[in-house]
Hints:
The complex is a heterodimer. By secondary structure, chain A is α/β, with parallel strands linked by helices.
Amino acid sequence: MSDFExxxxxxxxxxxxxxxxxxxxxxxxxxxxxxxxxxVPCTGKxxxxxxxxxxxxxxxxxMVAGCLVGDCHFKNGNLRAAARVKRVQTLLDDIGIGADRVxxxxxxxxxxxxxxxxxxxxSKKIGEMGPNPIxxxxxxxx
Amino acid sequence: xxxxxxxxxxxxxxxxEPFGKILLVGCNECVTVCHAGGRKEVAMLASALRMxxxxxxxxxxxxxxxLERQCDPEYAEELALVVDQYxxxxxxACGCGVQTVAERYQxxxxxxxxxxxxxxxxxKNGVWAERCAGCGNCVLGMTGGICPIARCSKxxxxxxxxxxSKGKCEISPDVDCAWQLIWDRLKxxxxxxxxxxxxxxKDWRSAxxxxxxxxxxxxMAI
Lengths: 142, 222
């Protein structure tokens, strides 16, 4: 088993996923320490560029975590985010990084256990995929 | 506006193979509005190029700049201070912007990063449709504000043709018959007599058929 611990950046909506992460903490649930949570006012605020730059700066995976479909505080921010994630996934496939390094997930504020489970599963999946391939390329070029 | 779409990444990577340092230049006008080549799209493509080339083990230095209007020499001039540092300039503007920059910086490769498409308008967020063919002799006043050149598949002047069925064009059920739209609009305006007027064959010399076009305003050219 490799000792690679992936860095996963989570853009978490203040109204749901961020609170869910909080709930997970209060329930003493654990998820991998490489999961780094960034609070955003709504996933509709997550520009495709944020995802690209997270990967460019060394994240191995990026998760955009928004409210359940139909529950967005701003009506359709989570739907916009899902469409943007899809667009970024296509671009990542085109440049050889791989669409699977980015995911859109939906959790409600009370689903602490679900958040911990999703974060653990995604981190495990990224771990199996290995480090962000730009790191290897940068080493080879150095 | 002039609409455009980013070229496929594979084509972009291939065209940039010989280069190690490029300046990626966007435009604040039409291509910003159609989300093809504004500041945001420049940042996205720059990020994609950096990552893609790193993955290939051949890093590419990409600097970003977005001009107010790339098709104007006075704005293209802004590149003069920095352009010498790069192997190539990659333009995300329409073909007019690419050519303005290429003409100003003759010794430097200037590559297009988008495919310029058509003159169109926004139907809704994320959807643009062709509305003007730039034919040089506008007939919209006769046709209820609907262009028979840009919106009729056959560009006919006295339509509809036999391919019009239930308001749609024979080329696709998704394409409206322009002449059906024209008739509906003329009826709405109470101007159906305009439809009865046979339009004469168009003199296409005012369009591209007369060769490359120029507009000269002597009062402005001082």
